[in-house]
Amino acid sequence: MIPEPDAVRVRLDLAYDGGPFSGWAVQPGLLTAQGALEEALALILRRPVRVVVAGRTDAGVHARGQVVHLDLAPGEWEGLVRRSTGAPEGVLVRRLRGALSRVLGEETGALEVRSAVVPPPGFDARFSALWRQYSYRIADRPEHWDPVMRGITLWHRVPLDVGRMNGAAAQLLGLQDFLAFCKPREGSTTVRELQEFSFERTHDGVVLAHVRADAFCHNMVRALVGSALRVGEGLERTEWLHERMLARVRDAKTRLAPAHPLVLEEVGYPETAEEMAARAEQTRALRDEIAG
Prior knowledge:
The structure is a single chain. The protein has 292 residues and is of the alpha+beta class. The chain is built from 7 helices and 10 strands. It has helices at residues 33-45, 74-79, 88-104, 162-170, 220-232, 240-247, 273-291, and strands spanning 8-16, 52-53, 62-72, 111-117, 131-139, 154-155, 174-177, 191-201, 207-213, 262-268. Strands 1, 2, 3, 4, 5, 6, 7, 8, 9 and 10 form a 10-stranded mixed beta sheet that branches. It starts with 7 loop residues before the first strand and ends with a helix.
């Protein structure tokens, strides 16, 4: 979405608990993160508002570092400070918190707006992004099953070999076709650049996965983690993930890890306005070429 010449583009940084939401994208009759945010914005601006998101999340998936943008008329932006003190950025965050409380009711606090800024020219929350980073928590021993953390942790009943999982994950890095680990969408590519895929056992004994790519296709992270679990359990060889990727196989062994431990941690963007605009133009042109 390219802004009108006189529009003010606003970047919002969000965090949300995915538990109460039926995913990010608006769905009729269901509570979604996008639906709640757009309804709150409509209460403030008194008109329908559309936001563009860096990366859609599935039902149950959480976010600490989600990014969206929206476009406002100059009068709307300047009007935010009427009868208020402070800059429009801070006023918008405060008013959004109040509006979200009205929208979410008993689920107040499930979605928080961390900040609002006017980004450099050319910024696009989706197309300017260089990468998206996810984490996934796995407790593979009963002594590490912490009830306080169960909402964001997979309680896995089989001990995992982290070394084997890392050996398998390393073979998938780079620009690859991840059809074997994606649910394809019509008109979309399954080619992605997987920049990081690793596992570590943290100080509390939990296995933490780190997954970063330029973009993710539908169910990609959960399929990658679910497949790595088979290797960690000793059910498959360390070469198995790589062989499946090359064969572009989707079958009964394509297992999705549960959604609730998955967290969108951060979205990375270029540092300068020129790089931001160039990245958006390049990504938009690639998506148009694929769709065409």
